[in-house]
């Protein structure tokens, strides 16, 4: 089932997600709905707060990035084949040089800005079968994970921008809160006018 994506300004996007147990109600259905919602919006990642759930759950499928001809064959293959569900994730380490990449967010449509993130991460999480894993990722996969991880910490990519950049996008963010933005996927806006 395709769920509405929660728009910028909604308090749920600012909550630190709570850990969940394997018996969390309708967990498999929630995960399936999140994948369907993400694919419908042509996203590569989606966190539970973006569908109104303040829990530590996010999903990633970087296959669309695997079509980028500017990347090496190894990078393309890694991205084409990376699909994961992260439950109760905990960032262990972020390392390496910070590098910029133009990011967007399904909860903040029509806003894209360069964000600087570490090139390599170590993360601990449970997969959808509740098997605990600790893994190291780098490059674009690490970036997408960091972006979605921020969501379960109540952080948005716009928080990482300079104060000048924040000023420049202020009107766009206001339009999202007022429901004046019309992406081609289902959204739920803070303003009653946009619902």
From TrEMBL:
Coiled coil: none annotated. Its EC number is 3.5.1.88. It comes from the Bacteria. Pfam families: Pep_deformylase. SUPFAM superfamilies: Peptide deformylase. Removes the formyl group from the N-terminal Met of newly synthesized proteins. Requires at least a dipeptide for an efficient rate of reaction. N-terminal L-methionine is a prerequisite for activity but the enzyme has broad specificity at other positions. NCBIfam families: pept_deformyl (TIGR00079), PRK00150.1-3 (NF001159). This is Peptide deformylase. It comes from Flavobacterium luteum. The lineage of its organism: Bacteria, Pseudomonadati, Bacteroidota, Flavobacteriia, Flavobacteriales.
């Amino acid at each position: 089932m395709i769920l509405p994506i929660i728009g910028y300004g909604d308090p749920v996007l600012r909550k630190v997600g709570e850990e969940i147990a394997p018996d969390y109600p309708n967990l498999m259905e929630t995960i399936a709905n999140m994948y369907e919602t993400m694919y419908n919006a042509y996203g590569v990642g989606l966190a539970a707060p973006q569908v109104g759930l303040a829990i530590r759950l996010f999903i990633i499928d970087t296959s669309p990035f695997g079509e980028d001809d500017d990347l090496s064959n190894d990078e393309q293959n890694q991205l084409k084949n990376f699909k994961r569900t992260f439950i109760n994730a905990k960032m262990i380490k972020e390392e390496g040089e910070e590098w910029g990449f133009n990011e967007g967010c399904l909860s903040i449509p029509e806003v894209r800005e360069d964000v600087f993130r570490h090139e390599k991460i170590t993360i601990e999480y449970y997969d959808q079968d509740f098997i605990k894993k600790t893994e190291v990722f780098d490059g674009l996969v690490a970036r997408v994970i960091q972006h979605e991880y921020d969501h379960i910490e109540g952080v948005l990519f716009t928080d990482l921008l300079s104060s000048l950049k924040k000023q420049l996008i202020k009107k766009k963010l206001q339009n999202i809160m007022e429901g004046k933005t019309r992406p081609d996927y289902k959204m739920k806006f803070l303003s009653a006018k946009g619902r």
